[in-house]
Design a protein that fits this description.
Elements: E1 13-20, E2 24-26, E3 28-29, E4 36-38, E5 49-54, E6 63-69, E7 73-77, E8 94-97, E9 99-104, E10 108-114, E11 118-123, E12 132-138, E13 142-148, H1 154-165, E14 169-174, E15 180-194, E16 202-209, E17 214-216
Antiparallel strand pairs: 1-9, 1-14, 2-8, 3-4, 4-7, 5-6, 5-8, 6-7, 10-13, 11-12, 13-16, 14-15, 15-16, 15-17
C-alpha cells in the first residue's frame, strides 16, 4: 500500500481542444449538487467534456464532465450550485460547447504553476489596537510549460492558432490513474526556442487561467 501515499504525474497526457461542435443553448440550470442543465436535443452522452457558458460567474467558462443524461437534460458533474445566495435562481442560462477534436500537447519537459494566492484587506477601526485581515479575492493563476522543440508539428500549429485567436481555450490533462483535470484559459505560445548548451531546445507555453480547474476521478 506504500505506493498509494504519493501521486506522480509521470505518463500524464495534456490535450488542447481544437474543434468544437455548434454551441447548444442551455435554457436552465438547477440549484443542486450536481446541477441539472436543460438543453433540447443536446445529443450528449455521459462522460462527455464540455465548455460551459453560464450567467453564473462562478461556473462560467469552466470545463465540465457530463453526468447522467436524459433526452433534453444532463447533469453537470462536479459542480455545486445549491446555494441560491451565490447562484441566483434562473440566472444560470447559457450554452455548452462540445469538443470534437483534441490535439496532444506532447514533449513536455517542465510544468510550473503560479498565482492563486489569497488576497486580504488589512485595516482596523479607530478604537482597535490591532489591525485585522479580511480575505477578498485570489490572484489569477497561470501554468507555464516548457516543450521540446518541434517546429513543424501539428502540436505547434495548434498552439500558434490558439495564441493568435485570443480566445479562451479548453485543455484536458489525463493522469496515469485515468483521473482528469480540466483547464480553461488564454494560451500564449513563444516558439522562439530556448537554447542552452547540453540541454534540449525548447519552446514555452503559458496558460493564463480564466476559471478554476475542475478535477474528476476516472469513470
Amino acid at each position: 500500500m506504500a505506493q498509494d501515499r504519493f501521486t506522480f504525474p509521470n505518463g500524464s497526457i495534456l490535450e488542447l481542444a481544437t474543434v468544437f461542435a455548434e454551441a447548444k443553448t442551455v435554457t436552465s440550470i438547477t440549484n443542486a449538487k450536481p446541477p441539472e442543465a436543460t438543453s433540447v436535443a443536446h445529443g450528449l452522452t455521459e462522460g462527455d467534456i464540455v465548455l460551459l457558458r453560464s450567467g453564473w460567474s462562478r461556473i462560467n467558462g469552466r470545463g465540465v464532465r457530463v453526468g447522467a443524461v436524459e433526452a433534453d437534460e444532463f447533469e453537470l458533474a462536479g459542480l455545486d450550485t445549491s446555494k441560491t445566495a451565490r447562484f441566483s435562481a434562473g440566472r444560470g442560462v447559457g450554452s455548452i460547447l462540445l469538443p470534437t477534436r483534441w490535439q496532444q500537447v506532447d514533449k513536455i519537459l517542465e510544468v510550473s504553476s503560479s498565482g492563486g494566492e489569497q488576497q486580504f484587506w488589512t485595516g482596523a477601526y479607530l478604537e482597535d489596537d490591532d489591525e485585522t485581515q479580511v480575505p477578498t479575492t485570489r490572484n489569477p493563476q497561470s501554468m507555464s510549460l516548457s516543450l521540446g522543440d518541434d517546429p513543424d508539428s501539428d502540436r505547434d500549429a495548434a498552439l500558434q492558432e490558439a495564441d493568435e485567436s485570443k480566445e479562451e481555450q479548453l485543455l484536458r490533462l489525463t493522469l496515469p490513474s485515468g483521473n482528469i483535470i480540466l483547464y480553461t484559459g488564454y494560451v500564449s505560445y513563444n516558439d522562439n526556442p530556448q537554447m542552452q548548451r547540453n540541454n534540449p531546445m525548447s519552446g514555452r507555453v503559458v496558460i493564463s487561467l480564466t476559471a478554476r480547474p475542475t478535477r474528476y476521478t476516472a469513470l
